[in-house]
Design a protein that fits this description.
heterodimer, A: about 300 residues, 6-stranded mixed β-sheet, about 20% helix, rod-shaped, B: alpha+beta, 3 helices
């Protein structure tokens, strides 16, 4: 059986093929160099150095935003003879999506924030206000609060002390730690910030003003338990719950038992005296009447 | 001769025109412009937070006041609040703390020595500052006691306010989301509340109606009206326990027994 001859691949032997191979290698090297990240000119960069993401800004202090800009020159927009360039411009700052600042200097920015979560976004823009292409921006989320940034809230009732009292109108003083009391007007919740609710025998009674005394009036006689609870701005309890209770016994009208016993004892003595007198009188009367009967 | 003089004058005028001397300044250097980017006109600035005014200029170099370079195309911005010079700005953002009420912020480009440009270049914006929230509908509710409750002579009424900040009366008119609470007892004015501390009531026995109403700084009702009413019945000594006391009766008995003793002694003495 005859076998067909095997066709082998031709070998580059001609000068033209060698030139093509060399050209291909050169083009490959060129493409590798062009697409190399080290070879490309570094584009503008923007980063937020502080605060950290989800950082709690405590004690009602303004937020200080620090940022860094690279490969981009910050200049005042609208200068005389200014020509728009992708390598220079300024920084636009947005708070919760609202335009807030135009920054031309890399220096910390002071932002007073209301309590609650906020998003800060910085964006590089050209002198004419148009964003760069591709967009260069950075954002950070923070939570602002009037309370301390860390710590577990606690509450203690410092007055009155447990026990009896004769007053039906009682002031209540509380002491809180790691928590700032603020008057509620519907503002968003913020960590470690809120107000106090007072409950009388488990029933809501009042919300004292921030750092004011609670004043529960006309409490019923007997044992009364008052609970003070820390709540968020939207009146929801903290998690974990922070509350304290005190039981006071309101003494009603004075107990009459003592005076009744004294007066009753006196009555008994007087009654005995009267009985003795009556008996003696009857005996004397009998003695007087007997001699008259003898004759 | 006249023709030569005329030709000379025409030539001189032509040279002047060619040199640009009689041209306006606008042909030499563009006229600066000034505009306010933020806040927007009639914006409400809430929660008493300072107002950040962002402005834009063109053909004008902002420089620190007092640097000595006086030019019609460089200088700073004078900031006027309600007509009074409040600040000087050499950067595009300036933060202003404003009290509650309507305000007009006016910016003016000035040269380094503080003189206005010619022509004067200004921009202004009207804003409203409030200590209350910038948005939201005010709300008012009574949280204690409940409707129809039976209470003692002394009682407290707790209420909640939302999207509204309580301030002392007498502030500027027309400020949104700030004011105070007017209290009416049985349709008669009872109290004005400038904070959310519980209201202390001292009422006579019987049924009563307490009405709370949010009002603006001038005491006028909000639009739409925000008010809430509560019906109460007052009963004196509610919840007091008064135990039976037999002492007065025993004392009366003592008196009668004493009289009996006296009568017995008297009869005895009489018998003697």
């Amino acid at each position: 059986m005859a076998r067909a001859p095997t066709r082998l691949a031709p070998t580059p032997s001609s000068p033209g093929r060698a030139a093509m191979l060399g050209l291909s290698v050169l083009i490959g090297i060129f493409l590798v160099v062009v697409t190399s990240p080290h070879a490309a000119a570094a584009g503008p960069s923007l980063s937020i150095l502080a605060p950290a993401n989800d950082q709690v800004i405590g004690n009602g202090t303004p937020l200080i935003v620090s940022f860094a800009v690279g490969n981009f020159v910050l200049v005042q927009p609208g200068r005389v003879g200014q020509v728009a360039s992708a390598a220079e411009g300024h920084v636009d700052l947005y708070v919760d999506g609202l335009y807030s600042r135009l920054l031309t200097r890399v220096e910390p920015v002071l932002l007073p924030l209301d309590s609650g979560p906020h998003t800060i976004r910085l964006q590089l823009v050209q002198d004419n206000g148009t964003p760069l292409s591709p967009d260069v921006s950075a954002s950070v989320r923070v939570v602002a609060t009037h309370g301390p940034a860390v710590g577990t809230p606690t509450i203690t009732i410092v007055s009155p002390k447990p026990g009896p009292t004769i007053a039906h109108d009682v002031y209540f003083a509380v002491e809180v730690t790691n928590f700032t009391l603020v008057d509620s007007y519907g503002q968003p919740n913020a960590s470690n910030e809120g107000h106090v609710q007072l409950f009388l025998n488990g029933v809501f009674n009042q919300e004292p003003r921030a750092y004011d005394l609670g004043f529960i009036v006309d409490m019923p006689d007997g044992s009364n338990t008052v609970t003070a609870r820390l709540v968020n701005n939207d009146n929801t309890p903290l998690n974990p719950d922070a509350s304290a209770s005190v039981t006071i016994r309101i003494l009603g009208a004075p107990d009459p038992t003592g005076s009744e016993q004294v007066t009753g004892g006196l009555s008994l003595i007087l009654a005995l005296i009267l009985v003795v007198l009556l008996l003696r009188r009857r005996k004397a009367a009998r003695r007087v009447s007997l001699p008259n009967e003898d004759p | 001769m006249n023709a030569r003089i005329f030709a000379l004058i025409v030539a001189m005028i032509g040279m002047l025109v060619a040199s640009g001397i009689p041209a306006s300044n606008g042909r030499g250097a563009p006229v600066p412009t000034l505009s306010i980017v933020s806040p927007t006109p009639n914006a409400v600035m809430g929660n008493g937070t300072p107002v950040a005014v962002v402005f834009a200029v063109t053909n004008f170099n902002l420089t620190e006041p007092g640097n000595g370079t006086s030019s019609p195309n460089s200088g700073h911005v004078d900031v006027f609040v309600d007509g009074a010079l409040t600040a000087k700005a050499s950067v595009n953002t300036i933060v202003l703390a404003l009290p509650s009420g309507p305000h007009t912020i006016r910016l003016r480009l000035v040269t380094d020595n503080g003189s206005a440009l010619n022509p004067d270049i200004t921009a202004s914006v009207a804003v409203m500052a409030t200590r209350g929230p910038a948005g939201g509908t005010p709300g008012l509710s009574i949280v204690f006691p409940r409707e129809g409750a039976l209470v003692g002579t002394d009682s407290t009424l707790s209420f909640r306010v939302t999207n509204f900040v309580l301030v002392a009366p007498g502030g500027p008119a027309g400020v949104p989301n700030e004011g105070h609470v007017q209290v009416r007892l049985d349709t008669a004015r009872y109290a004005e509340l400038t904070d959310d501390a519980p209201l202390h009531l001292n009422l006579k026995d019987g049924p009563h109606t307490v009405t709370l109403q949010l009002v603006d700084n001038e005491g006028g009702p909000l639009n739409p009206d925000v008010s809430v009413s509560l019906h109460l019945t007052v009963q004196a000594l509610l919840g007091r326990v008064t135990p039976f006391d037999a002492t007065p009766y025993l004392a009366l008995a003592n008196l009668l027994i004493g009289l009996g003793i006296l009568a017995a002694i008297y009869r005895k003495l009489e018998a003697h």
